[in-house]
Write a structure and sequence with these properties.
The protein is an alpha/beta fold and about 850 residues long. It has 32 helices and 23 strands. The strands form four sheets. The chain has an eight-stranded parallel beta sheet with strand order 1-8-7-6-5-4-3-2. Strands 11-12-13-14-15-16-17-18 form an eight-stranded parallel barrel, surrounded by five helices. The longest helix is centred in the C-terminal third of the chain and has 21 residues. The protein is globular and about 90 Å long. About 50% of the residues are buried. The mean pLDDT is about 90.
Length: about 850
């Protein structure tokens, strides 16, 4: 008999359908369950009516199922406890496994373990250890019953999954067995799991578990799974499974998909090469499985992805790339660096302390550094209580900053996502590596690696050569001896204060910059990180902000991937006066006779203040608000400008000139992504204010358009301008917002009956996402005119890549005004034909 792996490599396998649907249709009475107190406990039927369970298995085998799942979905002791059966969990699970094993013969059996009725993250009525113990027991019984693989299915909380997987691994070790571990998550119609993660964050969070397969089941019918399954298929180096419900139930609990319609909709997943294992969940029957088996027969299976993605995650996933570096790590949730945060923790006001983290995220932090190491308090207790709050306050990945492995473990047990551990080094040889690496293997995570070794004279590497040498040694140890993937290593070349007068560190900033460059070139698969504000320690406060910004600018040019900063007080490099930039660079590069003295003298007794705005013309001030991402005074100046010009003239004039300058500065590496987003927010405020003063067309509604920024893109300035201009020219606009997946657009099409759809996106990857979205719209039978636009899009790309995938009329608009012109021509009978022919 071939192994399950061999079988899935050779062909697409068919999983069985719903057990509960079939049992419900069997006309069972309370007596069949063993009495009224057990009625509804399907797992108890493994003992009281094994013949009924056996008959369901036989029906699915006869329909063509290659894989049976055991009737053990609800066998967690705390679930069975609701029927007074907690003590019989092993017995019921073992019986279910044996029934499936006996029925299957030469076919495969997976031991099914559902999500239970309690969630660590959502309801918080179960602990990590309780979940671990429950699934250890279930897995042990399933293994004893002879299953071929273990399946954690219908998962709704990734933290439950992590705990359950540890329980499964523990049971396998106890049994001396190695069996495949499969996971199937449930994505709600909202687009995420119940606890908040989408499929990409889910996959990244479980990467460390060495899963056999990962997939989706339940919750919805196949249409709503399309985009999620496509993402999973592109990411996963594992096999991918899918077994949807037979559609969504109606008010009578009836499922809409017939066997033929379900197989027809699943056929796309097979044809696109997204799946290895296909079956059915709620509402499916042997008839559905027979249709699916016929559909997949002879079709080639999906080929797993070649390499894992480089990513970290919280509720949301973050991919560190050249397009978004440096990722900003908020530093104020740290009792060592933030007096306010420390005071809140000491006062045990942990919910308010979590708001400090939320403020950092609002300021642009894409990761949060968390440090609770106060020598006067119990760090472990504080971390435990703070993590319970911050994981509800923010969605970004978390960086756990502690020297105590016990504290690290406590924190990681709160993380749904793939966190970053800060940090390991060789100060005590391999001792810290030996303590921390097992935590990474157990809970998942990337790790910051400091360039520090055992050298008693110069343990903390100051020179570029020492930084690189220690990085090379750490890389070899961690990847070769400890088995940590290189993609999960984040090297910290260390930042030293250059303003204290200590000659040891006078030229250290340049060595750090060169260290970033050298490590990036030597290990391109790894990332780098710096605690930026360390460079300015001891200098006047106003000067610190300037030096930090100039240092960050040069570090970014050197290749820096993560920057630990105070995102609420990050000075913009282009906004710094030329003289102050020169003073900062003189200090960084040690130019001149006394660069430290000159810098300190200039900033002593000064406070940072913007250049006097009134020295600029009104148009220059309006543009500067956008360039600096500032709103202070913006509305007043807009009101003044309204006395001179119409709202659209202001938008297309000084405000757009500001956005053009933002683009130029970004392309010149003088602005980072987080600062561009702040400029976009200032533009949004300006446009929103001006909208109230625009004259609306008095004509009847010309047409209805649905607008959306495509999945994966948070930029919406262009789209919002289109909305305002169209709305003020007689069009009804439904704005779906940002990061809109195809299924949400399809739902909006059915809900709003629009006359056209508009897609927007700023990023390069957004152009490709438009291709994918166009494909899904076509498959859904949508033939409306499709407008597309965005900074990375071109007329040629639209014509050669998007239009062929859509099939219907596809038009490219380079800006909002051209979008209005195209809409006017499209929805006017005399000009429509010419536009269509073009």
């Amino acid at each position: 008999m071939p192994s399950l792996r061999d079988a899935l490599t050779a062909r697409i396998l068919v999983l069985d359908g719903a057990m509960g649907t079939m049992l419900q249709a069997a006309g069972l009475q309370a007596a069949d369950f063993g009495g009224a107190r057990y009625e509804g406990c399907n797992e108890h039927l493994n003992l009281t009516r094994p013949d009924v369970v056996r008959a369901v298995h036989a029906a699915y085998l006869d329909a063509g199922a290659d894989v049976l799942s055991t009737n053990t979905f609800g066998c967690a002791p705390y679930v069975l406890g609701e029927y007074g059966l907690a003590e019989r969990a092993w017995e019921l699970t073992l019986a279910g496994a044996r029934l499936a094993r006996e029925a299957a013969g030469a076919r495969f059996v997976v031991g099914a373990m559902g999500p239970g009725t309690r969630s660590i993250s959502v309801t918080r009525n179960v602990t990590f250890d309780e979940v671990l113990a429950a699934y250890e027991l279930q897995a042990g019984a399933l293994v004893a019953g002879g299953v071929d693989a273990l399946l954690l299915e219908t998962a709704q909380d990734t933290l439950n999954l992590k705990a359950a997987a540890l329980g499964v691994r523990r049971a396998l070790r106890a049994a001396g067995r190695e069996l495949p571990l499969m996971v199937s998550g449930t994505i709600e119609p909202t687009g995420t799991m119940l606890a908040g993660q989408g499929v990409e964050a889910l996959y990244v969070s479980l990467e460390h578990l060495d899963l056999f397969s990962i997939g989706l089941n339940c919750a919805t019918g196949p249409e709503f799974m399309t985009d999620h399954l496509r993402s999973l298929g592109a990411l996963s180096t594992r096999f991918v499974s899918v077994y949807p419900n037979a559609g969504l139930p109606d008010e009578r609990g009836q499922y809409a998909e017939t066997p033929a319609s379900l197989a027809f909709k699943l056929a796309r997943f097979v044809e696109e090469g997204w799946v290895n294992l296909v079956g059915g969940c709620c509402g499916t029957t042997p008839a559905h499985i027979r249709a699916i088996a016929a559909m997949v027969r002879g079709r080639p299976p999906r080929v797993p992805a070649a390499r894992e993605p480089q990513a970290v995650s919280g509720i949301e996933v973050v991919y560190p790339t050249d397009d978004n570096r440096p990722l900003l790590v908020g530093e104020r949730t740290n009792v060592i660096g933030s007096r306010r945060f420390k005071e809140l923790v000491v006062a045990e006001r942990f919910e308010e302390a979590a708001e400090v983290g939320r403020a950092q995220v609002r300021g642009g932090a894409q990761v949060l550094d968390l440090c609770l190491a106060n020598p006067d308090r119990d760090e472990a207790a504080d971390m435990d209580r703070f993590m319970a709050q911050v994981t509800r306050a923010v969605k970004v990945p978390l960086m756990i900053d502690s020297t105590d492995p016990h504290v690290l473990e406590l924190a990681l047990r709160h993380c749904q996502g793939k966190a970053i551990v800060n940090s390991v080094n060789l100060e005590d040889g391999e001792e810290r590596l030996a303590k921390v690496v097992p935590l990474l293997r157990t809970y998942g995570g990337a790790v910051v690696v400091g360039t520090i070794d055992e050298d008693k004279q110069q343990g903390m590497a100051v020179t570029c050569a020492r930084k690189l040498a220690i990085a090379e040694r750490c890389h070899a140890l961690l990847t070769e001896r400890y088995g940590i993937p290189a993609r999960d290593l984040i090297f910290d070349p260390l930042v030293f204060p250059i303003g204290t007068g200590d000659a040891t560190y006078a030229g250290s900033a340049v060595e750090t910059l060169e260290g970033v460059r050298a490590i990036t070139q030597r290990f391109p698969e790894c990332k780098t990180i710096l605690g930026v504000s360390n460079v300015s320690f001891g200098l006047p406060p106003a000067g610190r902000e300037v030096l930090n910004s100039v240092f960050l600018y040069h570090a970014t040019k050197a290749g820096l991937d993560y920057a630990i900063v105070n995102t609420e007080r990050l000075e913009r490099y282009p906004s710094i006066p030329e003289e102050e930039r020169r003073l900062a660079e003189d200090l960084l590069y040690q130019r001149g006779a006394d660069p430290l003295g000159a810098f300190a003298a200039h900033f002593r007794d000064r406070t940072r203040a913007p250049a006097p705005a009134r020295a600029l013309s009104l148009d220059e001030r309006l543009a500067r608000y956008i360039v600096e991402g500032s709103r202070d005074g913006l509305v007043a100046d807009l009101d003044a400008k309204l006395g001179e010009a119409a709202p659209l003239e202001i938008i297309n004039g000084p405000l757009m000139r500001g956005m053009e300058e933002v683009g130029r500065l970004f392309n010149d590496n003088q602005l980072i992504v987080a600062e561009v987003l702040q400029s976009a927010e200032a533009m949004k405020v300006a446009v929103g204010h001006l909208e109230r003063f625009m004259e609306k067309s008095q004509s009847a509604t010309r047409a209805t358009l649905v607008l959306a920024t495509v999945k994966g893109d948070v930029h919406d300035i262009g789209k919002n301008l289109v909305e305002i201009i169209l709305s003020n020219n007689g069009y009804r606009v439904i704005n779906l917002g940002i990061k809109v997946p195809p299924e949400e657009l399809i739902a909006a099409y059915h809900a709003h009956k629009p006359d056209a759809i508009g897609l927007s996106g700023l990023l390069v990857k957004s152009a490709q996402q438009m291709v994918v979205t166009a494909q899904d719209l076509r498959v859904a039978g949508i033939e409306l005119p499709l407008f597309v636009g965005g900074a990375a899009l071109t007329r040629k790309f639209t014509a050669t890549r998007i239009a062929p995938e859509y099939g219907g009329l596809t038009v490219y608009a380079k800006d909002a005004m051209e979008g209005l012109d195209l809409a006017n021509r499209l929805f006017s009978a005399p000009t429509r034909e010419a536009l269509v022919l073009r």
